[in-house]
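Example record

One chain of 466 residues, shown exactly as stored in the release files.
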Amino acid sequence: MNRRHGRAVLALIIAERSFTFVEAAASEKHRPRRCGQLVLPEGVSLETPAEAGQALGDYLRENGFTARQVVVGAPARWMIASEKPIPPADETQARALLRLAAERLSTADSGELIFDFIGRPIRGESSAVLLVGMPRIWLNRVEEMIAAAGLRLSALTSTALALAADEPPSSGPALLLGPDAGELVWREEGRPRLLRHLPMALADGGDAELDGLAAQLKRAVMLSRPGLQQANGQSLTLWNQAGLSGEQISVLSSRVGLGIEDSRRNERETKDSTGVDEAIFIPAAALARAAVSGRLALDFAHSRLAPPRQRRWGKRSIWAAALAVAAILAVVSFYIGIEQRRAELDRLRAQLTAMAPDLKAAQAVVDRVNYARTFFQTRPPALEGLRDVTLSFGDGERVWATGFTFRQTGQAGLTGKAADQRTILGVLDRLKKSPRFDQVKLLDMRDAGGGSRDVAFSISFTYSAE
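Predicted structure tokens for this chain:
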């Protein structure tokens, strides 16, 4: 966005429970006039924009802030960002294509989203832009809060992206780290390709918290596009708003596996008479410089993807424009569809290659299970019958089988011995009660003889395994 502010502008950064701001003007060579921080009262937040705006207006008046134009930096947790390829096209064609992509993202999310993008299409060759969306409810709340404070909203942008644009053009990751969250930006030759919110809490910067932050940074790198998954020896630029010490930064660097450079070059430009830590004003100072110099690359309040104004044209012009746009969109959609399918095919092939060892191991398990299953499916009824007869012997009873016969018709016979007649009658009763045994008869029950007190028995029955 090329909106140069000749008058003073107030750069306001929204945090979880506070606002930080820097006032600057182009006529003063972008040096901040004054800085401030407002911690919102209990029960007041952006969900109550009128009360938040009243508190903001009171603070600004009491501390001598005179700027009426406000540029707001919003946190990455409000936003979704996705890099989109653009075929060779001019600005108008590229915006039409990005509106289609934005509509698809809106339908996949709940609530109305507004989108803007960072980057510029190149006529004659393919390019890529970063498409960034945000729920409209946040824009509405910011507008209501700014109006309640008696100010005018000039722009609403991303804090981390504005801060990254204030750095010299370079490649690699940059992390805006606050006490409650982190915002990761990945740049390639100065162009942002990724924006991601990292939820975290750094109460005291202990080992467990540093481990959690390191794990999230590694995960963010691994989940990014393949071209971003390797830092190629580049270091991570850290905007340290969480108050990490040099030793803690060194520990974090070793655990992440990236060199970390703590960016502190703006501290001397942001002095506050209240004694608040100067480092917290670095994002607001960067946003103020971008605003007064017209270098805001992203503005949800004046999105370049907003629907164009309707104009009264003749029927011929309307039909000609509609046919031209339809033809362009058809060609562009066809091209993008091919590229997306090709990328999906490459991804699936790589996934299958990576899964090959697991698939081989899984197939071996399936083969073993199928082999074992045949034992149960083809097991003869005689084994099932012998198993069910065995189960009819009570636990702790002195009874045992000495013979078992089984015919294909299901007719079977059991001979055995027991300690007494009561035990034999108990087995006979349990066989009769089982639904798998029919025509159960006690054929014989006598003393076993030979000086033994055991009782021999013989039972016949018909068995059905079903």
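Notes: The longest helix spans residues 315-377.
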